[in-house]
Design a protein that fits this description.
By secondary structure, this protein is mostly helical. It has 4 helices and no strands. The longest helix is centred in the last third of the chain and has 22 residues. The protein is flat. The protein starts with 6 loop residues before the first helix and ends in a 5-residue tail after the last helix. The mean pLDDT is about 90.
């Protein structure tokens, strides 16, 4: 629809994205978390996976469990502000 303006064209600062991650129960031992993190990061480093996700417009963000926790906290706060501003309620 080339004649329809995008949201970013009429809402200054508009940003929306999605992301996916892998989580584990809170009580998971640190050694297991470390092993999973290393395996996931190794998979994300695979050139074929990088290329395929890049073709789909994706960006890989390998990192630490702490960095992922910070991403979740930051995203929660960002979108909480949007929800509060909108006045939306769960009803």
């Amino acid at each position: 629809m080339p004649d329809v303006a995008s949201v970013a064209e009429f809402v200054p600062g508009y940003e929306a994205s999605s992301w996916y991650g892998i989580g584990a129960p809170r009580a998971t031992p640190a050694g297991i978390i470390d092993t999973l993190n290393k395996a996931v990061n190794a998979g994300l480093a695979d050139p074929k996976l990088k290329a395929r996700l890049g073709d789909l417009g994706g960006t890989l963000l390998p990192g630490s469990p702490a960095a992922f926790g910070q991403l979740i906290a930051d995203e929660t706060e960002k979108w909480a502000k949007v929800v509060r501003f909108s006045g939306a309620t769960p009803n």
